[in-house]
């Protein structure tokens, strides 16, 4: 039995309610109020079927880095579909766009990440990472190195591999059991979890030490890799305090543990450089990426693999029994290439790093940081998270049953802004083409919605 459709719902809403199971959605609750139909988009704005215009403060799901409505991407997709809409890269074949995109990713990524494996989503990239690092240790004669260590409240996707590696308690509780061989350590969330009076630097070292403690607990020779987002995204935009990544890397090196940066959100300009690893000073052995790789115009993801791992797999691994029908899909690859060309030719990422990113961070702290509901703001470039609190001084968080985040998100939605709630943290990640004037417009709306949330 289904909830009766509301009399004013449109045809699309009725179809949707009757047949569409949405991801991460309480379908019954959604059907009671109808899904909002998003119909078109341009630049940083989206429009729904009732003609309401909204600023997309989330760039879709942290992915439309280039903004909406770039005809060049549609044109290369059409050209590629006419030329060669599909061919696989499994059976001794490749395609022009797949080879060229692999070369470009190798050139853009830091260090010796010279080799690229393609998939379709961030989750598949993470599944690839899990299998690839374990395979690496098998090939180099240490097949007992199986354990991957990640962090509580990390998000690494929704496939069985991604959800198991991620640290989202609510996800782990459903569809159990999760994959074995995965460990989680505490997250470096200073504002929310540091002891009273603890400096950011002290807290950073304490959180990194949790990695060393866990490595020693499970046995250093059993650990394959540590995986982390340079800045946690879906966990609420949590920027690790200074010193954290340096210490994590020291520990990984000490015990010869591979380091994987999950750049699905941070990659392709979000932090003001091409990759979050560059902003945060990380030198990973492998890097997963998706979202901004094509600005969401096509589903495509990749794992960039450093020489150490790739050379072992190539020289001694034989066939790696892993891949997806659409690995290196020519249309998706062509669109990603055009996306990268535009990001580069128009200096979009440089502008985020030097101008709009710092401006956004400064305006948020100066204007939004004053609001009584906002306890703390963190972020860099064009990604930010803010903690909604019951009281700033003394610091008091909302209880689990007090859903200020959802209330605020709903006010945003009705007032022309898409801002997402991760619990009681509000997060923002607008398209990278946002101008200073549009940042001002977005912040004006945030203030209106925070006032309504009080
Ligand atoms: N890794 C990170 C850091 C992510 O933020 C996400 C998605 O938000 C994923 C992996 C999973 O990507 P997808 O939803 O494309 O499977």
Automatic annotation (TrEMBL):
Ribonucleoprotein found in the keyword field: no
Coiled-coil residues: none
Protein name (record): Putrescine aminotransferase
Keyword Translocase found: no
Domain of life: Bacteria
Source organism of the structure: Marinobacterium lutimaris
PANTHER family noted in UniProt: AMINOTRANSFERASE, AMINOTRANSFERASE CLASS-III
GO MF terms, alphabetically ordered: pyridoxal phosphate binding; transaminase activity
Family from the record: Belongs to the class-III pyridoxal-phosphate-dependent aminotransferase family.
Signal peptide range: none
Co-factor requirement: pyridoxal 5'-phosphate
Keywords: Aminotransferase, Pyridoxal phosphate, Transferase
GO cellular component, one term: cytosol
């Amino acid at each position: 039995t289904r909830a009766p459709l509301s009399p004013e719902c449109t045809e699309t809403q009725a179809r949707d309610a009757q047949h569409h199971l949405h991801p991460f959605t309480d379908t019954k609750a959604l059907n009671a109020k109808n899904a909002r139909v998003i119909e078109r988009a341009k630049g940083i704005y989206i429009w729904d079927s009732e003609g309401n215009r909204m600023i997309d403060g989330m760039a879709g799901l942290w992915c439309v880095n280039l903004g909406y409505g770039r005809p060049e991407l549609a044109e290369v997709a059409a050209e590629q579909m006419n030329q060669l809409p599909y061919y696989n890269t499994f059976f001794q074949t490749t395609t022009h766009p797949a080879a060229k995109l692999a070369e470009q990713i190798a050139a853009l990524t830091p260090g010796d990440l010279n080799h690229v494996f393609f998939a379709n989503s961030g989750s598949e990239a993470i599944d690839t990472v899990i299998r690839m690092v374990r395979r690496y240790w098998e090939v180099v004669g240490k097949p007992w190195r199986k354990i991957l260590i990640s962090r509580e409240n990390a998000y690494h996707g929704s496939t069985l591999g991604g959800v198991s590696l991620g640290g989202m308690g609510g996800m782990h509780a459903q569809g159990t059991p999760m994959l074995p061989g995965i460990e989680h350590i505490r997250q470096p969330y200073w504002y929310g979890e540091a002891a009273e009076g603890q400096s950011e630097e002290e807290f950073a070292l304490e959180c990194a030490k949790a990695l060393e403690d866990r490595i020693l607990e499970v046995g250093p020779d059993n650990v394959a890799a540590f995986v982390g987002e340079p800045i946690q995204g879906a966990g609420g935009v949590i920027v690790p305090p200074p010193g954290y990544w340096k210490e994590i890397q020291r520990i990984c090196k000490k015990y010869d543990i591979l380091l994987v940066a999950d750049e699905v959100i941070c990659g392709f300009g979000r932090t003001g450089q091409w990759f979050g690893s560059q902003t945060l000073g990380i030198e990973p052995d492998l890097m997963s990426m998706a979202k901004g790789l094509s600005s969401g115009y096509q589903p495509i993801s990749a794992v960039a693999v450093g020489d150490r791992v790739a050379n072992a797999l190539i020289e001694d691994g034989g066939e790696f029994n892993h891949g997806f029908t659409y690995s290196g899909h020519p249309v998706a690859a062509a669109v990603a290439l055009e996306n990268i060309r535009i990001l580069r030719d128009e200096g979009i990422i440089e502008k985020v790093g030097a101008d709009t990113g710092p401006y956004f961070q400064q305006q948020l702290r100066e204007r939004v940081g004053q609001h009584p509901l906002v306890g703390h703001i963190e972020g860099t470039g064009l990604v930010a998270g803010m903690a909604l609190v019951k009281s700033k001084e003394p610091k008091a968080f909302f209880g689990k049953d007090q859903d200020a985040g959802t209330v605020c998100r709903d006010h945003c939605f009705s007032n022309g802004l898409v801002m997402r709630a991760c619990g009681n943290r509000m997060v923002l990640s607008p398209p990278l083409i946002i101008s200073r004037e549009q940042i001002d417009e977005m912040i004006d709306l945030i203030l209106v919605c925070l006032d309504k949330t009080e």
